[in-house]
Structures are given as C-alpha cells and as structure tokens.
Amino acid sequence: MRHFLTTLDYSRAEIEALLADARRLKSGPAAPTLAGKSIALLFFNPSLRTRTSFELGMHQLGGKAIVLEPGKGAWPIEFDDGAIMDGEPEEHVREVAQVLSRYVDAIAVRAFPKFKRWEEDREDKVINAFARYATVPVINMETITHPCQELALALTLQEKLGGTDGKKMLVTWTYHPRPLNTAVANSALIIAAKMGMDVTLLCPSEAYTLDPRYMSAAAEMTAAQGRTLTISHDIDEAYAGADIVYAKSWGALPFFGRWEEERPLREASRHFMVDAEKMAKTPGALFSHCLPVRRNVKVTDEVLDSPRAIHVDEAENRIHVQKALMDALLRGRLG
Ligand code: CP
C-alpha cells in the first residue's frame, strides 16, 4: 500500500503515468471503476476547488466521498503521542485513523501549518500521523506541499506548452496582505524540476527562499536532467525568457510566529504583483495561479482576463488528475 503525501516519493515515470490516465479520463465519460469504494475527506482548513473536485471525482467514478471537518461537525483530534487529553480534543489520531480505515478505502487530509514555528510545521505532523496509523492510502490535499495541485499544473503545462522538457518556469512571489502557506510554492518548484523544466524562483529577498528540503530537491532534479534552478530577486532578469509565470504569495520562513516583523518587508514588495508590464518582459509567457486569487492585489485583472492566463484550465484539471490518482491508489496500481 502506498500513500500520496508528496511527489518527491514518486518517479517522473509514475507521475507521467498518472497524467496519461488523467488525459484518458478527461477525454470521455468515466467508467464506474470505483463502484463500492469510498474516501474520507478531512478538512482542517477551508476549500472550494479541492473539496468539489474530490467529491465530484469520486462520484463520477461510482464511489462515495464523505467530508469531515474535525472540530466543526466532527470531534477535535489530538496529535501528540502521550498527551494527557484534558483539553479540547476528544479523540486521538490513532483511533481516528484506525476507525476510518475500517470504513473507507482511502483518507485524504488538508491541514495547513500553524504559522507559529516553521521548525515544527515542517514536520507535517497531522498528515504523517494519519499515514502512520491508517491502514488505507492517505492523500495529501495540501499541508506543506500541495501534490494534487502539482499534478493539475503538470497536466495543464503539457496541454498548453506541448510538453515541459526544456521549458522555462518562473515561480514568482507576489504580494498578499497576509502571510500565506509555502505549500504551493514548494510544489510548483518541485514539479517543474521533476518535469524537466528550467526553474527560476523570484522573491523579494533571501528571507523568502523556500525550505532547504524543497530547494535541494529541485536543485538535484534539475541538475540530473541537465536543467537549471535559479534564485533571483531581480524582476526584469527573472521574467526574461519565461514560458510560464506561476504566481504565489507566501510568508517568509525566518519570520514564522513574528509576522509583525515581516510586515514591513511584505509591504515594501507590493510591486511584485503580476501585471501586463511584467508579462511583456517575457516572450509571450502563459500565466497561472493555484487559486484562490485576490484580483489587483496578487495579479491584475488584465493578466487574469488575458488569453495567456490558464489558471481556470489548471483548476479544471484538478478533477481529472485526482480521479486518476484515486483510481490508481484504490485499485492498487501504484504499488
Ligand atoms: N487550489 C486549491 O487547493 O483551491 P482550494 O483551496 O479552493 O481547495
């Protein structure tokens, strides 16, 4: 049995096979290959796309999805081993994961970082506990990476660029009034590297570079395929030559838990918003974003409404890649 916690656990060939399945599923009505199967979707954080695409995807394959929101309609859960549970949590993840495993064929989890201490958040305690105690496959619906978004991005790039090898991906930090999760930035970096792209990470300063785990993985994967990973703080230089501009905002890791100290850096970097002037520095690059997106804060209307924008295509592809993923995991085709 295999979990789907991060694409770092999967080879490029395995990812390509999932993408081929997704293309097949996208091309016509799905057969009810998961009839009689079920999945529990545990949301510790809000969602529009992930919840809709997983629920509907499972329905289209003939199975059943059950949404649970711990602490809101389902009991709050304890994750610390040995905890004296005299606080809010009513049950421990050991029981939750084992009991759900008796009911359903897979468990999917969305659990964002707590944004207090990165050293703690980077351990990804919630999903790793489910993976440890569940006896069915566990799927990451976004924790400190967002591997399902990665699959959707990869499929969209294959469709729109005619392939990914040797194409240039710019992952740019963009302004948001609040510090956000680094998950999608980590994910964009590693999937672009895995898919044979030249990758540039553009961010306001060294403080906004990503966790070394993902920087190193991207560096190794690009080098292994004769590609490059570049870190840039220069907008003009970074946009030049890009085939795809991928925007995301995130909080600076050294400032976790000290966000008031980060605020001046963030406010001084509002000019990273993606606009037509920056896009004009590229040779006609595509634009995408994982969504949700704040218009005219992260990206201008002009860019989002242009024919180069593929963010809605990427969002649509969530359902196709997740159907491929659930079908492969629940029918034991991923080992
Ligand atoms: N991109 C994404 O995961 O969207 P939701 O947060 O709406 O699920």
Can you walk me through this structure?
There is one protein chain. The protein has 335 residues and is α/β, with parallel strands linked by helices. The protein has two domains: 7-145 and 318-330, Aspartate/ornithine carbamoyltransferase (Rossmann fold); 149-314, Aspartate/ornithine carbamoyltransferase (Rossmann fold). 40% of the residues lie in helices and 14% in strands. It contains 13 helices and eleven strands. The strands form three sheets. It has a five-stranded parallel β-sheet. The chain has a four-stranded parallel β-sheet with strand order 2-1-5-6, with helices on both faces. The protein has a two-stranded parallel sheet with strand order 3-4. Strand 7 (168-173), helix 7 and strand 8 form a beta-alpha-beta unit. Helix 2 crosses helix 13 and helix 7 packs parallel to helix 8. The mean pLDDT is 97. It binds phosphoric acid mono(formamide)ester. Residues 47-50, 142, 149, 290-292 line the site of phosphoric acid mono(formamide)ester (CP). Residues 47-50, 142, 149, 290-292 line the site of phosphoric acid mono(formamide)ester.
Quick rundown:
The chain is an alpha/beta fold.
Task: Output the keywords.
335 residues; alpha/beta; Rossmann fold; 5-stranded parallel sheet; 4-stranded parallel sheet; 11 strands; 40% helix; binds phosphoric acid mono(formamide)ester
Outline the secondary-structure elements.
Elements: H1 12-26, E1 38-43, H2 49-60, E2 64-68, E3 77-78, E4 91-92, H3 93-103, E5 106-110, H4 118-121, H5 125-133, E6 138-140, H6 147-161, E7 168-173, H7 183-194, E8 198-202, H8 212-224, E9 229-232, H9 235-239, E10 244-248, H10 259-267, H11 276-279, E11 286-288, H12 301-304, H13 311-330
Parallel strand pairs: 1-2, 1-5, 3-4, 5-6, 7-8, 7-10, 8-9, 10-11
Bound molecules: phosphoric acid mono(formamide)ester.
Phosphoric acid mono(formamide)ester binds at residues 47-50, 142, 149, 290-292.
